[in-house]
Every structure is written in structure tokens, then in C-alpha cells.
Design goal:
It is a single chain. By secondary structure, the chain is an alpha/beta fold. Strands 4-2-5-10 form a four-stranded mixed beta sheet. It has helices spanning 6-22, 26-38, 42-61, 88-102, 147-150, 163-178, 196-206, 218-232, and strands at residues 2-5, 71-79, 82-85, 127-133, 138-145, 154-158, 186-194, 247-257, 262-269, 276-279. Helix 1 (6-22) packs parallel to helix 4 (88-102) and helix 2 (26-38) packs antiparallel against helix 3. The protein is globular and about 50 Å long. The two termini are 14 Å apart. The model has no long low-confidence stretch (mean pLDDT 96). The chain has two domains: 2-20 and 65-145, no CATH class; 148-272, 60s Ribosomal Protein L30, Chain: A (2-Layer Sandwich). Helix content is 40%, strand content 25%. It contains eight helices and ten strands.
């Protein structure tokens, strides 16, 4: 059994909060550069150039890529041979609090969704997803989720008779309806299967994959490519100003489901596509 001190987790989360908001991933940069080479729209090219320049300034000056520094979504993979010395949830809360304060990141969390809606002042609490995995390490992935894209997300409890055509139509309709709101070019996360909450979780987890990576299952990978082409054919373009670069990638994750259902969820990441991870 390996012991990990809660203080180490706090320090790791604190650092991840700042790095995720300051440093655009190399995978996103490379895909945006490829999109720039292929973009036909002059306005679209100008927007992509500005987004790349913005990312460079953020990284150099250690300032947020976007003013919406998001709600902290934390994914944990806890090894079965790990023992946490201290309160794991409190350690993560403290890390988010410290990271957002020390990094001068906007605090966007309110204490109640309906009544009062008073800002908590430190961007806590985060949302924490925990999985137990084999091994003696702890993997922490932090996704600062802006809500321009989050608000455009959707889920539909489809039935098997809707088939693949129904799945495609729902995804395309969701992206088309979102338009410029999720700040394209977006990464589209799709979860298919499981149950109501599992499909939504899969759609969000799909956003953690390197942008442009493919699902290991060939037919799912082909569906990702087909949907990406169809989405970029909608003409929404960078920041919704027209062009062929509405999305940088479509990532699909699947899970077994009930014989009577076929849940499908769509979750958006904006052009920043922020997430960072560490293994302790």
C-alpha cells in the first residue's frame, strides 16, 4: 500500500488550475494550425490567427487564455493500492481555492443554482469524478469548464429504432443549434450508451482525449471522421463568423446500455480546449 499525503494533492491541483488556464495544449495548437492552412474564409483565417496569437500571449504572460476560467471539473483515477493521508475531497477543494486565488483566475461558482446564487468567492466546490483503477498511483486531470460551451450541451434518450441515422442527426442538430455560442472551433465530445448520467459523463470525458485522436474501435473512429466533416460543412466557422472550421475534432466514447434504450449526449469544449493532468 502506498501513502499519498493530502497536501501533495492540494499542491498538484493548485498548479493544474493555473497551467490549464494559461497553457493551450500542443494538440490544440497543432490542429488549429492545420485548420488555418485549410480555411477558405478570409475572416475565418484571421480569427484562427488571432486565437493562436492569444494563446501565445497567455502562455508568455501567464494570464488566462479566456476570461471565463471555468468551473473546475476534476477526474481522479485512484489506484487500488493507494491510501490518502487526509481528506481527499477537502484537499482538492483547497487546491482549487489556492489555484484560482494565486493565479488571479475568475471565480464563477455560485452557492445555490436557484435561490440566492451568491458567489462562493474562491471557485469551490469543484465537481469531482472518481474511478478506482489497479495500481499504486493517483492520476488527477483538471478541466476548467467554461459555460459558453456547457450551456449548449444536450442529451437525448433515444431508442434503438432511431438507429445510427438518428444518432448522427441529433449530434448535427445540437452543433447547428449551438452556432457561435460555444466559441468555435470546438471539440465535440459525444457519449453513447450507458444510462442518462453515464452518457453525459462519457461526453465530458471524451473531451480529455488529445484533440484529433481517434477511438480505438474502427467503426467508431470512422463515425468521428464522418461527423467532423459534416459539422465543418455547416459553415458556422471560427467564432461563428463563417468558414469551414467549426470543429477541430469529434471524440466519441461508448458504453454498454439497456436493450430498450440508446442514450446520446453531446458536450462542447471551446477553442481553448483546456485540460491538464498529473500522476502522483
Amino acid at each position: 500500500m502506498r501513502n499519498i499525503d493530502a497536501g501533495e494533492i492540494t499542491r498538484a491541483v493548485e498548479k493544474l488550475c493555473m497551467e490549464a488556464n494559461y497553457d493551450l495544449g500542443a494538440d490544440v495548437r497543432e490542429n488549429m494550425k492545420k485548420a488555418l492552412e485549410q480555411e477558405d474564409s478570409p475572416v475565418g483565417r484571421e480569427v484562427l490567427e488571432q486565437l493562436l496569437k492569444n494563446a501565445e500571449i497567455a502562455q508568455t504572460n501567464r494570464v488566462p487564455i479566456c476570461q471565463d476560467t471555468g468551473m473546475a471539473i476534476v477526474f481522479l483515477e485512484v489506484g487500488s493500492e493507494v491510501h490518502i493521508d487526509g481528506d481527499l475531497t477537502e484537499a482538492i477543494n483547497e487546491g482549487v481555492k489556492n489555484g484560482y486565488e494565486q493565479g488571479y483566475l475568475r471565480k464563477s461558482v455560485v452557492n445555490d443554482p436557484v435561490f440566492g446564487r451568491i458567489n462562493t468567492g474562491d471557485n469551490t466546490p469543484p465537481i469531482i469524478h472518481t474511478e478506482i483503477v489497479p495500481g499504486d498511483s493517483l492520476k488527477i486531470t483538471l478541466l476548467p469548464k467554461g459555460f459558453g460551451g456547457e450551456n449548449m450541451s444536450a442529451i437525448k434518450m433515444m431508442v434503438p429504432a432511431d438507429g445510427l441515422a438518428g444518432v448522427k442527426n441529433f449530434i448535427l442538430e445540437t452543433v447547428d443549434k449551438a452556432g457561435p455560442n460555444p466559441c468555435p472551433p470546438v471539440t465535440v465530445g459525444v457519449g453513447i450508451g450507458g444510462s442518462f448520467e453515464k452518457a453525459a459523463f462519457l461526453a465530458k470525458k471524451a473531451l480529455l482525449r488529445p484533440v484529433g485522436s481517434h477511438h480505438p474501435q474502427p467503426e467508431v473512429a470512422r463515425l468521428e471522421e464522418e461527423l467532423l466533416a459534416a459539422i465543418n460543412g455547416l459553415g458556422i466557422g471560427p467564432q461563428g463568423l463563417g468558414g469551414r472550421t467549426t470543429a477541430l475534432a469529434v471524440h466519441i466514447e461508448t458504453y454498454p446500455t439497456h436493450i430498450g434504450s440508446m442514450p446520446v449526449a453531446v458536450n462542447f469544449n471551446c477553442n481553448a480546449a483546456r485540460h491538464k493532468e498529473v500522476i502522483l
